[in-house]
């Protein structure tokens, strides 16, 4: 059983981060809220997303898993204005999700959860360094890096107490640095890893520019990007595997 | 003889509905205003448009017909700001339409009206059901239907006293319903017909979202869509032939 | 030695007019400001641009020439908001330009000035007629002309005391005229020349619509287009060679 009502804006902010990595996903519909966990086909990026029941106008679920075409569901939600209410109701017999927005009722065929790619099983990961940046700072760093390269080094300069993003092109280079004054928060520790800009650019696209984004980093370790949405009732966690250092 | 002055906005709202169906059309320049009637090459859609002389700042015509390239004329009008005045003057000798917008004079070569496709000869059509919807409601229904199918059923549910729009895809379905509370007006009668979304989407694109749109419907009958513009001095009527029911 | 700070907006207005004509250019960094002079590969258009040191928040240069990829530099400046300050610093040893915008440092590899196309050596040109128009008037004339042709006649009607722009298509024609009342200024003299719309359209794209644009013209002579920017501390001069009259 699942029936819920939420603003189109909240649902869109829930679906878009998942849609950057996968076409289809499982949604866990628990009593306390919904959870999504998915890994991209190349197993480079993982997203873990939760949205608490408090984010909804009304929410009722007794546990269960549905498989959905993420982009399709995001498109349907996109038919609404951002503060329109979207009514969701699971029809367990027909395995359909009924989506109602005003006079519009869209019946979405669900995907068999068993044919959706397995969810990732992440080992607990201790990342020693962390920095809290504004979405717009991250955006500027990633867009500048894209001008010169396909990958980027992200790390912490322990001496200067700075977070940095470095990209090296054949001709030009980009160096982006933020120290304690520029950052919301910084925990200094050894950290330097190389990442694919393809993935970082996709993730960057869904991070609201006015959001605080937490980066957690290590030495040739995955990066953990996380931020809250829907007044803190929702959370997005991205894990991004490092590229092998090519020097 | 024809010479007239109107706002660019009024002229654009006159030309765009015609341009969705045909490339060239005849414009009848009568003493009381102008009239356009055109049918698309596949003979599925018809537009009948009138614009009263009161829509113009000044208007003089003594009857006559000109053939025009609709899109071209719409593009020239589009050079103006929407509240700029556009001066039109027919040069009967050279068969040219002189269009003046401020210091700009565009001389448009007219098309021989005899080579423009014949105007449709519509039998008077009694359509039993009718509904008055807002442009934005129609827009939402059509856009949702386009997500799942290439055609759509539009009808009136006599029991529920509702206008509905139904589209059925291979996987997903769209059902849009508006009852008396949602509608500006509804005349209940048996009505259910299938229409091509290609045409409806094109027509929808030119209907202002804040306009009241009248739909007239029957059982496997054409649909009549009409709305006013330019403070009621202009009227657009679309007729759309039904598709054959495929079940 | 060169180090300077200016608003992104000022730098963008300096680079864009050059980027419409050439990919790479020399920038002369003099004590009083910077100068750029460049001719397009087809030797049809020339741009001469100057930006006074007063346009900068701070400026220090002791003379010297750098070669730059104009579009690339414009893209980097475009990463900033228009009122952000952009810090420029020349590293003479590595022949790199260091561009700093907040926490972002972009290191741009310079181009050897000796491999950049020679700067044009323009003979002093006496152009008898001139008109001062608003950018938006010029914009409307050029866009209308583009609808019918690939070239345009620009001239002064001595009898009517008007500046005109004429374009003749296979079917339609455009005539644009501005007399003393419409113009900021007009110096009447014999003037009529044909120009490529490709070039004029590119030049038009960078002229701000709210700017006064000075056109200087003669009989089958080049056109001189000039305007100021950055509160009069910057000036753009375009020279455009006439096309041969084809009648």
Automatic annotation (TrEMBL), chains A, B, C:
Keyword DNA-binding set for record: yes
Domain of life: Archaea
GO terms for MF: DNA binding; DNA polymerase processivity factor activity
InterPro entries: DNA_clamp_sf, Pr_cel_nuc_antig, Pr_cel_nuc_antig_N
Record's keyword terms, sorted: DNA replication, DNA-binding
Presence of keyword DNA-binding: yes
Domain Proliferating cell nuclear antigen PCNA N-terminal: residue ranges: 7-97
Any Pfam family the entry gives: PCNA_N
GO biological process: leading strand elongation; regulation of DNA replication
Subunit architecture: Homotrimer. The subunits circularize to form a toroid; DNA passes through its center. Replication factor C (RFC) is required to load the toroid on the DNA.
UniProt family annotation: Belongs to the PCNA family.
Function: Sliding clamp subunit that acts as a moving platform for DNA processing. Responsible for tethering the catalytic subunit of DNA polymerase and other proteins to DNA during high-speed replication.
Protein name: DNA polymerase sliding clamp
Organism this protein belongs to: Haloprofundus marisrubri
Lineage of the species this protein comes from: Archaea, Methanobacteriati, Methanobacteriota, Stenosarchaea group, Halobacteria
